[in-house]
Amino acid sequence: MSNTQPRPVESERIALKARNVSFSWEDTPLHWVPGDPFTTHTINVLHLLLPAGERWFVHVYKQALPLIRDDRLREDVVGFIGQEAMHSQAHDEVLPRLRELGLDPTPYTAQVDWFFEKLLGDRTLPPGRARRWWLLERIALIAAIEHYTAFLGDWVLNAAELDRRGADPTMLDLLRWHGAEEVEHRSVAFDLFLHVDGSYRRRVRTWATAFSTMVFLWQRGVRFFLENDPVLTDRKASFRDFHVRGRQGTLPATGDMLKSIPRYLSRAYHPSHECSTAQAVAYLAASPAALAAAKREAA
């Protein structure tokens, strides 16, 4: 266990609930950020990574439940599981629309499924120390990944440039509903990691693994989209394209992403010091999909 226990901001904690949202995609164009296929496809990678990734989160956390000795944390983890399951389903439902528009994501999603189900899946390990080690490694990996999903959630809630560029409102609502829930539950993965282990060495090691893997998978996803886009003639992309759009505000700024690294690696880090629960709750109170889900639930 770590000798330094970071202090959470209690006012940032909120009871978590899954919202049974649904979206209609028949009017969403292939390049839903008008005139900017690079931004569109960079964000579209979420639809390929998240269904398998969040199913994996749920699977690992169900295995972690017996290790939780704190009722409040257990409640948070159960709420987290419900939200992540809904996120996986919502992004998965975008894929048929991509196929209708002439872009079949199956070759890439098959690789992502293999990565989460085989490489990071359950292993044939003897009960006891080895099996527990593998579970703790994956819990720590999820904590590192959730640092970045919260970062992205906070970014998209504030990405006014996407509205100014005329981005598809349904896609923006999906991204912001999801982003707001990532901000809502941003502390759960880290709190679970502290509860079951908290090793600083493990935190650093798994951050390095998570960060490098996310960068690798994301750039492969962008390249896949550009190479298979049925209407593009210029299929090249570079880090400079990402950097420029970050400065324009249609993608996260490179500098902001780099600054997030030492914050996570600080011994005083706690996710409740990042983002704003109040902003997330405010968006969810206005989200068309979340409002429709609440209305269906109340009927």
Characterise the protein shown here:
This protein has 299 residues and is mainly α. It is 67% helix and 0% strand. It is built from 13 helices and no strands. α1 (37-64) packs parallel to α4 (106-119).
Give Rg in angstroms.
19 Å
Could you spell the SSE succession in H and E letters? HHHHHHHHHHHHH
Query: Which structural class do the helices and strands define?
Result: mainly alpha
Strand percentage, roughly? Answer: under 5%
DSSP helical segment count: 13
**Mean of pLDDT:** 95
Biggest beta sheet attributes = none
β-strand number:
0
Q: Which consecutive residue ranges, at least 5 long each, have pLDDT under 50?
A: none
- The coarse silhouette is globular
What characteristics describe this protein?
single chain; 299 residues; mainly alpha; 67% helix; 0% strand
Task: Briefly summarize what is shown.
Helices cover 67% and strands 0% of the residues. The protein is mostly helical and 299 residues long. The termini are far apart.
Q: What's the structural blueprint in terms of helices and strands?
A:
Layout: H1 37-64, H2 71-92, H3 95-100, H4 106-119, H5 129-157, H6 160-164, H7 169-184, H8 188-196, H9 200-228, H10 239-248, H11 254-265, H12 277-286, H13 288-298
Helix pairs in contact: 1-2, 1-4, 1-5, 1-9, 2-8, 5-7, 5-8, 5-9, 7-12
